[in-house]
């Protein structure tokens, strides 16, 4: 035994892990090699690596390397065994003697050269015998493969050439026989990102990719994770991937990418030095094999190249160097096999035949060919199942085309006709739905196919329909027109059968259809079934079977939707299919427990767009009706219409009840759009209505809609809104907002490099003026619009005339809110130009940054020219002195009629002077809201002095001071200035004061102003933080002078609770009206406050709006309200009081409190809680309530307008015959609902003398007002 072999044996054993070395010794003691005695067990138990080598040589001599390799193989340490085999073979080659012709015959003997590898490859004794087949593992010590460790270059080149011929061309689904296109010319690079999809993304399917760039923008934050085909196996964080998983939605291009990898390898463009052979395995084929059917990986490989049997030892040589092998497993999600087998149900022998599922699982788990490489493609929905069987996989997401690559695909598709490619791309880009769906390669192919046919027929793409249904219908029409030769009756029957098959598959969640299922509907006919179904030929033993699938899941959804809306579709279905559309809707929708509303699941969005798209019987179905006599089922159409009416009337309330009244004021001040509390109509449903393009259907569906609150994120969404609102004839409130601007996806993955901008250099996408022009044109068709709010919409010059028409034709339009975040000066000028024409606008809100002098001059003219303007809300930022001068000049004009001013601005010295001048000289402004920032003492003093002026008409002041000044909050000096306002103002009656982090000294100064004998203040609104810094004596003195107190309590600490109760029960307290809001419902406070209610205090009006629930505290409070000595005659309730939780307590109060004559309610979420409370309380005959008020102020701000408000009000009015007056404040009921209410009340037995809705009497002194007055 030479030293080289001894050293190699020692190195090999040292490379083993501890457990592997232990297993090696266990197998070695019972090897039974060539009838030689085994090594004594006792000698092996504690032997180290050196000692084991010595034992091997001692017992087996020259055969020691063979025994070592055999034991390694039996220990399943194949990689080490193979490495030792190769090392020893190299050593043999290095010491090989010259050819026999060079040797002297007298000295040369073949046995003189030691060859340790000659008899090494033997069939394992514990393997079951291979079945009789043409492909068997090599046996015998003299097999020629024993001396070859690699494939020859010619064999590899032959195999590469064969792969090229198989993958260099592909067939389009609609191609003629023999028509093929180049894969390289058709293929465009797909975006690949490293990492796993989230659980939600896994089930979103195609639609998750095409959601108006939402996912694309999220993806764009991870450019460092991008990958390419050529880098899939590059090291990641120092680790070399051996298993790569490519995941993506259906039609996203997984199979195309797998085939491209095969072609690139054959062209030596994909890791040419790493992989000797690459094999493509389609999982779809395995579904046609019985689970019990057996095969081996060697047999599977042999089917990849028909000539492999003609090449000597091809398979054996391939398997010999498994680290040079790559297997592409395409379509794991399509496998029907269960992989839940026992752990020992695996295969490690490439020649051993096992069921396919065991072969695949062993490949995945690296039990079989552990050194080989894998690429597995799958849909996200199967990823969790796959992950259980993989060893250290690396996940990549296929996201489809980037914007640049989608453009490249269009150019490739149209070839040399660049003009057609440009037209098609422009057509898709202007339609957001089509554009985002084109991220999916299959959809791009569909659209390119259809558009190419249309352009070749001379159609102008600008007049093309822009819906998915239209595109698919055109594609269907073209297939039926050019590819079928059967009679119309045969085509009608077969196409209905296709629809039935698709619907059944959707119902069963089935994608692949066995031949017998297709045969029963007679679909397998020449020139017809290939139009819609893919035929897949699968080999099983000596037979060939067929399996079918739709070209793509979207086609299956398309035909399934068509099946459900066609008249007579029920006659063409299997017995297992529930064809009831109602059942389909129920199955594919879910109910939100909080809102009790039904919503579509996102994974069914495309199917339902088709479902609604088919409802356009006039345009969509015209050709099919003409050719085949098909008609839309009226029953199903009515069902879908009713479903839309039900769900579109439901609003989504995202309101936290902790945000009650104190934040309501912040909401007013900072504009309700800035607080992310949105009440909106379901965008998906609006998109379904747009898909119909059926004006009558849409008009009927939207007839009851009075409010739309819409977040517009793309031009397509603007187009959808434009189409829908023109059919909302009863629309009264329209709120439309967009992001700061509508941008293209700002990332290199989705834009060409020359179009990528840094975040700070974002630029608005160039807007076709036609979009906004069409939007405003649709507004001119409305006649009941009362409030219009537009935020960040890019108003263009061409909109001017349309905007004028909106104001002219909408005589009910009273409130207009415009927010311009992008410093759009031209938009402000256009707005001002339109407002200078005669219009009915009474409330104007403007939020402008960096206003120009020209804009301020235009606005100033509006302030005094528009005699209807009564309320003005201005949010002004970065304005210079001249601009401020022009603005305030307009407000001081003698013809200016503005009475309420909301002003939020940066208080510069010049601005302070202008505001002060306005307060001194304005003869109309009586209510002022001030939110001032960056003020110093001098500027603050300026305004306070103006408020003390004898000519100042301000009666109600809302003052918010929230900004730091030189590191301090509102100073003591500023407090003295405000206190002097309270002391000296001749007219100020109400003060709402919110000062952050007020201290005791500052509060004491303000209290001195409130206690001053000449102070005219009657109502004070403060927060709990202010009160906590007040002394008991100061607070009591304030209560002696005030008539009305309003407290906002974020929390009720012990000091505030004690002070409040002591002050209210003091005999000198003058408070007649008390309003408590927020967190006050504690047991200790309610116990004390109930005692106050039992005493004959001056308190007559009590408003309670709480955020929390405390049953015991409410019981205590209600006991006080029910007491005979309680003097409260008017009770206001809001927040959690208007829930079923408190309704039983409150109904007892209404029944027993005999002096309670007036009730005011402040609903927050909806009117339902109000109805429940009133129904339980007013139904008792002992209830003496005569006046009922519902204040919709909060309902309007937070929730908009309840579409069932009018009907429920009628129910309330009819509950109690003692009710004589009903008032609804807050402008929260629409004119449409007012009409419905009137119809209800005219036919009921109410006793109302006065009915007041939205500032108008409907009934006055028992007399009905005329409809002209009401509306």
From TrEMBL:
<dbReference type="InterPro" id="IPR027417">
    <property type="entry name" value="P-loop_NTPase"/>
</dbReference>
<keyword id="KW-0804">Transcription</keyword>
<feature type="domain" description="NACHT">
    <location>
        <begin position="242"/>
        <end position="453"/>
    </location>
</feature>
<dbReference type="GO" id="GO:0005783">
    <property type="term" value="C:endoplasmic reticulum"/>
</dbReference>
<dbReference type="Pfam" id="PF02758">
    <property type="entry name" value="PYRIN"/>
</dbReference>
<keyword id="KW-0677">Repeat</keyword>
<keyword id="KW-0378">Hydrolase</keyword>
<keyword id="KW-0395">Inflammatory response</keyword>
<dbReference type="Pfam" id="PF17776">
    <property type="entry name" value="NLRC4_HD2"/>
</dbReference>
<keyword id="KW-0963">Cytoplasm</keyword>
<keyword id="KW-0472">Membrane</keyword>
<feature type="region of interest" description="Disordered">
    <location>
        <begin position="91"/>
        <end position="118"/>
    </location>
</feature>
<dbReference type="InterPro" id="IPR011029">
    <property type="entry name" value="DEATH-like_dom_sf"/>
</dbReference>
<dbReference type="InterPro" id="IPR041267">
    <property type="entry name" value="NLRP_HD2"/>
</dbReference>
<dbReference type="GO" id="GO:0005524">
    <property type="term" value="F:ATP binding"/>
</dbReference>
<keyword id="KW-0547">Nucleotide-binding</keyword>
<keyword id="KW-0805">Transcription regulation</keyword>
<keyword id="KW-0256">Endoplasmic reticulum</keyword>
<dbReference type="InterPro" id="IPR032675">
    <property type="entry name" value="LRR_dom_sf"/>
</dbReference>
<keyword id="KW-1271">Inflammasome</keyword>
<keyword id="KW-0449">Lipoprotein</keyword>
<dbReference type="GO" id="GO:0045087">
    <property type="term" value="P:innate immune response"/>
</dbReference>
<dbReference type="Pfam" id="PF05729">
    <property type="entry name" value="NACHT"/>
</dbReference>
<dbReference type="InterPro" id="IPR007111">
    <property type="entry name" value="NACHT_NTPase"/>
</dbReference>
<keyword id="KW-0333">Golgi apparatus</keyword>
<keyword id="KW-0964">Secreted</keyword>
<dbReference type="GO" id="GO:0061702">
    <property type="term" value="C:canonical inflammasome complex"/>
</dbReference>
<keyword id="KW-0597">Phosphoprotein</keyword>
<dbReference type="InterPro" id="IPR041075">
    <property type="entry name" value="NOD1/2_WH"/>
</dbReference>
<dbReference type="GO" id="GO:0005576">
    <property type="term" value="C:extracellular region"/>
</dbReference>
<keyword id="KW-0399">Innate immunity</keyword>
<feature type="domain" description="Pyrin">
    <location>
        <begin position="1"/>
        <end position="90"/>
    </location>
</feature>
<dbReference type="InterPro" id="IPR050637">
    <property type="entry name" value="NLRP_innate_immun_reg"/>
</dbReference>
<protein>
    <submittedName>
        <fullName>NACHT, LRR and PYD domains-containing protein 3-like</fullName>
    </submittedName>
</protein>
<dbReference type="Pfam" id="PF17779">
    <property type="entry name" value="WHD_NOD2"/>
</dbReference>
<dbReference type="GO" id="GO:0006954">
    <property type="term" value="P:inflammatory response"/>
</dbReference>
<dbReference type="InterPro" id="IPR029495">
    <property type="entry name" value="NACHT-assoc"/>
</dbReference>
<dbReference type="GO" id="GO:0005634">
    <property type="term" value="C:nucleus"/>
</dbReference>
<feature type="compositionally biased region" description="Basic and acidic residues">
    <location>
        <begin position="91"/>
        <end position="102"/>
    </location>
</feature>
<keyword id="KW-0391">Immunity</keyword>
<keyword id="KW-0832">Ubl conjugation</keyword>
<keyword id="KW-0564">Palmitate</keyword>
């Amino acid at each position: 035994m030479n030293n080289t072999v001894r050293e190699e044996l020692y190195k090999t054993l040292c490379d083993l892990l501890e457990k592997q070395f232990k297993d090696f010794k266990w197998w070695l003691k019972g090897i039974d090699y060539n009838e030689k005695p085994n090594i004594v067990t006792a000698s092996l138990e504690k032997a180290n690596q050196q000692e084991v080598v010595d034992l091997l040589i001692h017992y087996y001599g020259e055969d020691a390397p063979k025994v070592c390799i055999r034991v390694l193989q039996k220990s399943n340490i194949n990689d080490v065994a193979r490495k030792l085999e190769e090392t020893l073979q190299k050593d043999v080659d290095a010491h090989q003697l010259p050819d026999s012709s060079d040797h002297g015959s007298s000295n040369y003997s073949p046995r003189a050269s030691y060859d340790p590898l000659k008899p090494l490859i033997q069939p394992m004794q514990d393997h079951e015998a291979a079945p009789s087949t043409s492909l068997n593992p090599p046996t015998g010590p003299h097999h020629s493969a024993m001396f070859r460790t690699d494939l020859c270059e010619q064999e590899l080149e032959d195999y590469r050439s064969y792969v090229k011929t198989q993958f260099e061309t592909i067939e389009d689904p609609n191609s003629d026989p023999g028509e093929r296109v180049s894969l390289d010319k058709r293929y465009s690079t797909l975006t690949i990102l490293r990492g796993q999809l989230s659980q939600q993304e896994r089930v979103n399917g195609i639609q998750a990719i095409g959601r108006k760039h939402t996912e694309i923008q999220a993806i764009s934050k991870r450019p460092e994770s991008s990958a390419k085909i050529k880098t899939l196996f590059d090291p990641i964080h120092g680790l070399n991937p051996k298993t790569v998983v490519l995941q993506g939605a259906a039609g996203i291009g997984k199979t195309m990418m797998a085939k491209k990898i095969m072609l690139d390898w054959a062209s030596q463009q994909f890791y040419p030095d790493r992989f000797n052979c690459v094999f493509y395995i389609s999982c779809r084929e395995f579904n046609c094999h019985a689970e019990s059917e057996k095969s081996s990986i060697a047999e599977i490989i042999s089917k990849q190249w028909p000539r492999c049997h003609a090449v000597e030892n091809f398979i054996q040589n391939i398997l010999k160097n498994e680290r040079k092998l790559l297997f592409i497993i395409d379509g794991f999600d399509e496998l029907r096999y269960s992989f839940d087998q026992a752990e020992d149900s695996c295969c490690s022998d490439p020649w051993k035949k096992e069921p396919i599922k065991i072969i695949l699982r062993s490949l995945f788990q690296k039990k079989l060919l552990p050194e080989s490489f894998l690429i597995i493609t799958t849909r996200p929905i199967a990823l969790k199942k796959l992950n259980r069987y993989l060893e250290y996989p690396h996940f990549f997401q296929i996201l489809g085309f980037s914007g640049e690559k989608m453009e490249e695909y269009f150019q490739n598709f149209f070839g040399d006709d660049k003009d057609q490619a440009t037209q098609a791309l422009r057509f898709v880009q202007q339609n957001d739905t089509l554009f985002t769906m084109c991220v999916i390669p299959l959809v791009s192919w569909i659209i390119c196919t259809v558009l190419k046919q249309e352009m070749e027929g001379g159609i102008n793409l600008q007049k093309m329909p822009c819906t998915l249904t239209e595109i698919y219908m055109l594609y269907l029409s073209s297939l039926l027109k050019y590819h079928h030769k059967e009679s119309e009756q045969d085509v009608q029957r077969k196409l209905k059968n296709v629809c039935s098959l698709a619907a059944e598959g959707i119902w069963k969640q089935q994608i692949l259809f066995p031949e017998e299922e297709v045969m029963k509907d007679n679909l397998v006919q020449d020139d017809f079934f290939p139009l819609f179904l893919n035929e897949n030929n699968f080999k099983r033993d000596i037979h060939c079977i067929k399996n079918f699938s739709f070209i793509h899941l979207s086609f299956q959804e398309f035909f399934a939707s068509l099946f459900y809306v066609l008249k007579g579709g029920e006659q063409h279905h299997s017995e297992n299919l529930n064809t009831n559309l109602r059942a389909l809707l129920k199955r594919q929708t879910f109910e939100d427990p909080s809102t009790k509303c039904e919503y579509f699941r996102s994974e069914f969005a495309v199917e339902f767009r088709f479902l609604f798209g088919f409802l356009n019987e006039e345009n969509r179905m015209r050709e099919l009706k003409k050719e085949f006599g098909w008609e839309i089922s009226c029953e199903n159409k009515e069902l879908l219409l009713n479903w839309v009416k039900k769900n579109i009337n439901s609003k989504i309330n995202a309101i936290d009840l902790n945000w009650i009244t104190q934040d309501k004021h912040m909401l007013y001040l900072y504009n309700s759009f800035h607080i992310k509390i949105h009440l909106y109509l379901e965008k998906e449903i609006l998109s379904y209505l747009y898909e119909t393009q059926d004006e009558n259907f849409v008009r009927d569906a939207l007839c009851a809609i009075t409010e739309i609150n819409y977040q517009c994120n793309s031009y397509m969404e603007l187009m959808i809104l434009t189409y829908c609102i023109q059919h909302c004839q009863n629309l009264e409130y329209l709120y439309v907002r967009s992001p700061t601007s509508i941008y293209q996806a700002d990332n290199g993955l989705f834009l060409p490099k020359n179009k990528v901008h840094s975040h700070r250099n974002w630029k608005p996408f160039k807007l076709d003026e036609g979009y906004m022009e069409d939007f405003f044109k649709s507004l001119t068709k409305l006649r009941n619009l009362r409030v219009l709010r537009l935020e960040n919409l890019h108003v263009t010059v061409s909109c001017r005339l349309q905007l004028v028409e909106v104001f002219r034709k909408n005589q009910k339009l009273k409130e207009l809110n415009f927010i311009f975040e992008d410093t759009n000066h031209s938009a402000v000028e256009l707005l001002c130009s339109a407002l200078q024409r005669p219009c009915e606008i009474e409330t104007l809100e403007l939020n402008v940054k960096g206003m120009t002098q020209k804009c301020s001059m235009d606005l100033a003219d509006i302030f005094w020219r528009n005699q209807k303007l009564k309320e003005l809300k201005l949010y002004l930022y970065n304005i210079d002195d001249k601009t401020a001068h022009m603005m305030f000049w307009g407000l001081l004009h003698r013809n200016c009629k503005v009475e309420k001013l909301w002003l939020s601005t940066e208080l510069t010295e010049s601005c302070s002077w202008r505001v002060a001048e306005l307060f001194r000289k304005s003869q109309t402004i009586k209510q002022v809201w001030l939110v001032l920032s960056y003020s110093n003492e001098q500027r603050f003093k300026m305004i306070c002095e103006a408020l003390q002026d004898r000519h100042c008409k301000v009666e109600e002041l809302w003052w918010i001071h929230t900004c730091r000044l030189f590191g301090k909050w509102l100073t003591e000096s500023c407090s003295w200035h405000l206190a002097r306002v309270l002391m000296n103002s001749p007219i100020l009656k109400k003060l709402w004061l919110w000062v952050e982090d007020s201290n005791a000294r500052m509060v004491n100064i303000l209290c001195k102003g409130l206690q001053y004998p000449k102070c005219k203040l009657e109502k004070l609104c403060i927060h709990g933080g202010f009160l906590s810094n007040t002394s008991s004596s100061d607070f009591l003195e304030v209560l002696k002078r005030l008539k009305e107190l309003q407290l906002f309590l974020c929390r009720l600490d012990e000091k505030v609770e004690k002070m409040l109760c002591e002050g209210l029960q003091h005999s000198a307290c003058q408070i007649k009206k008390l309003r408590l809001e927020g967190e006050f419902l504690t047991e200790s406070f309610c116990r004390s406050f109930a005692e106050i209610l039992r005493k004959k205090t001056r308190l007559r009006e009590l408003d309670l709006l709480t955020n929390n629930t405390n049953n015991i505290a409410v019981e205590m409070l209600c006991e006080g309200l029910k007491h005979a000595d309680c003097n409260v005659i008017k009770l206001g309730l809001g927040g959690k009081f208007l829930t079923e939780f408190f309704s039983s307590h409150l109904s007892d109060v209404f029944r027993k409190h005999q002096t309670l004559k007036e009730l005011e309610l402040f609903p927050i979420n909806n009117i339902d809680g109000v109805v429940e409370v009133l129904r339980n309380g007013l139904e008792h005959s002992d209830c003496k309530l005569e006046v009922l008020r519902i204040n919709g102020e909060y309902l309007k701000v937070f929730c908009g307008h309840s579409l069932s408000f009018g009907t429920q009000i009628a129910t309330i009015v009819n509950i109690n015959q003692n009710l004589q007056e009903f008032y609804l404040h807050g402008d929260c009921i629409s004119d449409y609902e007012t009409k419905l209410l009137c119809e209800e009340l005219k036919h009921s037995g109410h006793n109302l003398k006065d009915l007041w809705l939205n500032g108008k009497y409907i009934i006055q002194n028992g007399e009905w007002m005329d409809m002209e007055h009401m509306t």
